[in-house]
């Protein structure tokens, strides 16, 4: 999610009305909120009459979950874990009618300097949503220039990735890179900054966050988990915040989009059976929401309905999941 200012305000769920509409009618339905965060979607779903099973791997969201547990006793369940396992985590809570996923980092996480997600606040170079595993500091201080550049390009679409990687490697020869602002200054020194442009470290921080949290793999696994979990008529709504994520979701709903074009002069190849039907047109924030919440400007909602076809095995081919070359 893009950053805007030092005081962007509390987390506001984006495209909320559109998500609720995509999953409606909700009264008495069981919905999995696979990315609970501060609970914005869960609250709206509960207020619409749904039963909600919420999932999140970030331990800092527990107070928000506790508040909803107290307010909606008997209709809200919180399960710690990753949304890539949502079918397993939600299995014991009865048949599920819908799933919502809000992909990426929340403004709540960006605003917590100690989490290390933001290039606008001084903090440790961490970026781990679960607090476990390799941190962003581990990556920038251990990867060679080539693999680091490939990571920045594949996950952040950073066209100046090689120059940035060279500056990072040179800087860490003096001392390890440990803080967010330190890394942001290195990136700005490497590629400069023009007035009015986005901060030069935007794509670098995005790439590192995605790598640290294995976000593309998690997204792919979550989509297939939702396909396994939902039966015919179940609905899936996914909100993404940049083109790489959106392309994965688009091609998941419609695998033919990722395949080679067929010539009308040759025998037609049999297309794969549809696991998702009634695929809605992509929705974006309107002017009113953009004025209230600038962070919604890059959000895209895609939604579809589960068909009766058996769920596919997990297979990322055709989904355009970015791969980092030489980072093994």
Automatic annotation (TrEMBL):
<keyword id="KW-0808">Transferase</keyword>
<dbReference type="GO" id="GO:0005737">
    <property type="term" value="C:cytoplasm"/>
</dbReference>
<dbReference type="InterPro" id="IPR023397">
    <property type="entry name" value="SAM-dep_MeTrfase_MraW_recog"/>
</dbReference>
<keyword id="KW-0489">Methyltransferase</keyword>
<dbReference type="GO" id="GO:0070475">
    <property type="term" value="P:rRNA base methylation"/>
</dbReference>
<keyword id="KW-0698">rRNA processing</keyword>
<dbReference type="GO" id="GO:0071424">
    <property type="term" value="F:rRNA (cytosine-N4-)-methyltransferase activity"/>
</dbReference>
<keyword id="KW-0949">S-adenosyl-L-methionine</keyword>
<feature type="binding site">
    <location>
        <begin position="39"/>
        <end position="41"/>
    </location>
    <ligand>
        <name>S-adenosyl-L-methionine</name>
    </ligand>
</feature>
<comment type="function">
    <text>Specifically methylates the N4 position of cytidine in position 1402 (C1402) of 16S rRNA.</text>
</comment>
<dbReference type="Pfam" id="PF01795">
    <property type="entry name" value="Methyltransf_5"/>
</dbReference>
<keyword id="KW-0963">Cytoplasm</keyword>
<feature type="binding site">
    <location>
        <position position="56"/>
    </location>
    <ligand>
        <name>S-adenosyl-L-methionine</name>
    </ligand>
</feature>
<feature type="binding site">
    <location>
        <position position="83"/>
    </location>
    <ligand>
        <name>S-adenosyl-L-methionine</name>
    </ligand>
</feature>
<comment type="similarity">
    <text>Belongs to the methyltransferase superfamily. RsmH family.</text>
</comment>
<feature type="binding site">
    <location>
        <position position="109"/>
    </location>
    <ligand>
        <name>S-adenosyl-L-methionine</name>
    </ligand>
</feature>
<dbReference type="InterPro" id="IPR002903">
    <property type="entry name" value="RsmH"/>
</dbReference>
<dbReference type="InterPro" id="IPR029063">
    <property type="entry name" value="SAM-dependent_MTases_sf"/>
</dbReference>
<protein>
    <recommendedName>
        <fullName>Ribosomal RNA small subunit methyltransferase H</fullName>
        <ecNumber>2.1.1.199</ecNumber>
    </recommendedName>
</protein>
<feature type="binding site">
    <location>
        <position position="102"/>
    </location>
    <ligand>
        <name>S-adenosyl-L-methionine</name>
    </ligand>
</feature>
């Amino acid at each position: 999610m893009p950053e805007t200012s030092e005081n962007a305000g509390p987390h506001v769920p984006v495209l909320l009305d559109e998500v609720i509409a995509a999953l409606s009618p909700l009264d008495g339905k069981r919905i999995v909120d696979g990315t609970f965060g501060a609970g914005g979607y869960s609250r709206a779903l509960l207020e619409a009459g749904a039963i909600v099973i919420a999932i999140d791997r970030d331990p800092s969201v527990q107070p928000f979950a506790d508040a909803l547990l107290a307010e909606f006793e008997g209709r809200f369940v919180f399960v710690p874990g990753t949304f890539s396992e949502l079918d397993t985590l939600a299995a014991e809570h009865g048949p599920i009618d819908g799933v919502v996923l809000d992909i990426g980092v929340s403004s709540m996480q960006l605003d917590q300097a100690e989490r290390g997600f933001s290039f606008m606040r001084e903090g440790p170079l961490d970026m781990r949503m679960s607090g476990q595993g390799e941190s962003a500091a581990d990556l920038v201080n251990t990867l060679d220039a080539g693999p680091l550049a490939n990571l920045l390009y594949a996950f952040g679409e950073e066209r100046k990735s090689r120059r940035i990687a060279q500056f990072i490697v040179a800087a860490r020869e003096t001392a390890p890179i440990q803080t967010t602002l330190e890394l942001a200054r290195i990136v700005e020194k490497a590629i400069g900054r023009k007035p009015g442009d986005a901060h030069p470290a935007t794509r670098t921080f995005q790439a590192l966050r995605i790598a640290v949290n294995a976000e593309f793999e998690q997204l792919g696994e979550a989509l297939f988990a939702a396909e396994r979990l939902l039966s015919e008529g179940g609905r899936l709504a996914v909100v993404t915040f940049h083109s790489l994520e959106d392309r994965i979701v688009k091609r998941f709903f419609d695998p033919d989009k990722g395949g080679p074009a067929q010539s009308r002069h040759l025998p037609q190849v049999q297309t794969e059976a549809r696991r998702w039907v009634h695929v809605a047109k992509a929705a974006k924030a309107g002017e009113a929401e953009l004025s209230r919440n600038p962070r919604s400007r890059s959000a895209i909602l895609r939604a579809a309905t589960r068909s009766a076809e058996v769920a596919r095995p997990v297979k990322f081919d055709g989904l355009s999941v970015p791969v980092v070359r030489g980072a093994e």
